[in-house]
Protein 1
Amino acid sequence: MAQKISLTRYLVEQQRVDGLIPAQLRLLLEVVARACKSISQAVNKGALGGVLGSADSENVQGEVQKKLDIIANEVLIEANEWGGHLAAMASEEMDAIYVVPNRYPKGEYLLLFDPLDGSSNIDVNVSIGTIFSVLKMPEDDRGVDEGDFLQAGSRQVAAGYCVYGPQTTLVLTVGDGVAMFTLDREQGSFVLTEENVRIPEDTREFAINMSNMRHWDAPVKRYVAECLEGVEGPRGKDFNMRWIASMVADVHRILTRGGIFMYPWDKREPNKPGKLRLMYEANPMAWLVEQAGGAATNGKQRILDIQPSKLHERVSVILGSKNEVERVTSYHSGI
Ligand code: AHG
Ligand code: MN
Ligand code: MN
């Protein structure tokens, strides 16, 4: 029987054989994985662990926080603050960056996360997840501040997510393709279950919240209308639709069998570029998707090329199977 490869072994080999990841980054990824294991435990307990329902607070985005949003945020901070691998962290659930306290050594990495993605699914027992992105501190920087985080997604050194679904699966890239690890609860470790993940270039499946259709811009309306016309329409084939309302779960499906995911700008809040956050939702997912042969744009430009101007910046997101993403993007330039 083929030997099982744990996440630890995978990372050690990436460090040793390929020289792809320095020791501090390996430690960081191990710690994030450990935090995800602990969040997975909390998610699994559900009502038995008293983790369901809302907390009495709002985050910086004006969203009501769920108990699990706060628990997951705390787990990630507590796991990561003392190891000496980080300079600071940033999270969807914190207004400002969290600088590693002076009592701990500081490292050269910056960690950003959406601790609990898909919060509206927590109480209804549907897949949710954690998304993370790792950047390096700019060289010769003495003190860490928010400005150090404002780097384009193309500068990420690691990115991934953990989906808490029927299985708990950690999906990771360090710029050398995409690997998936399934949590073996008996062993308590993540085991490599998929390497060199590839997204098919074509698809017959799209994911978008259709209830917003009347608010979309013309290019998105055109693309979806053409899909809905099916075999009789200009696309000449029938399409299927999925919308889980957890980006992690929707992206996981796309990495597994292809598809296109869209959360475009819409005129409900015309001054915001979109709903999803650039730095800890769109960037890590865009890099994973590109690493698996897919594409990710905001309709006009590659997501990974966007220069962020603030930590909680939002962005329009179109990602997944390459040919479909290119089609929607071309509709935005009037082709
Ligand atoms: P979060 O729970 O971290 O705020 O993110 C939810 C996001 C994303 O995961 C999902 O694709 C989208 O919001 C769902 O939005 P709608 O409820 O508007 O469909
Ligand atoms: Mn989210
Ligand atoms: Mn969240």
Protein 2
Amino acid sequence: MTTLEDPATDPFEVAAAAAERLVELTGASSHDVALVLGSGWGPAGDLLGETLAEVRTTDLPGFYPAAVAGHSGTIRSVRIGDTSRRALVFGTRTHFYEGRGVRAVVHGVRTAAAAGCSTIVLTNGCGGLNPDWAPGTPVLISDHLNLTAASPVEGATFIDLTDLYSRRLRDLCREVDPSLAEGVYVQFRGPHYETPAEVRMAGVLGGDLVGMSTTLEAIAARQSGLEVLGISLVTNLAAGISPTPLDHAEVLETGRAAAQRCGRMLADVVRRL
Ligand code: 8IG
């Protein structure tokens, strides 16, 4: 058991310690924007600007090694374009299905807040319910359904989630790319993909995208006062929408193919934040 899993530990103190260590390792006294790069979003970090420092997540208190092939376990401090602003780029995330508890899932978000960030961009790869969204289509997250039955918020703390996914930031994205669609993201626990019946259920409930991340992180981000932008990359049609079975290798390949467009869009958006 790490300290983060110990109920007696204050997760915000561990996040503050991680942020302090980030200052030492990156040489930057604070950061402005955090990005979490999900499946298919890896190359986006390179297009933001010059990488000024790169830190292994495991060198910071509270982080676990990356568990998913195709995810990198580093945090980069990146100069945003030619400005003096800095982005904190998480090349990986801890997923809820890893069973390390919700605190581990949202530790990066809390560390970003403790490091001074006021905005967080949560990206992911997901399945799409809308057959018009071909694999490789980026979609703005307008709202979510959290089907994990978990919350990062502990105790009797009542957090308002109206407009959790910032309308202002979604509008900003559409200034960069007016063709961007938006939809409701449904987080399942995973790690198995959904059955076709579960995908139909997600649709009946108002969902447009199915995945295994993001909602718990978004809630934690709101709790920490961060403005949240969520962007999904539809890497596959959800089970039953597509006639062919889902395959993680295909997911990664679609991500690679869409990476340039998505990366450029994201870099443009972050420069305008
Ligand atoms: I990439 O179709 C990716 N992640 N739950 N369902 C769920 N997660 C995903 C999917 C998907 N595609």
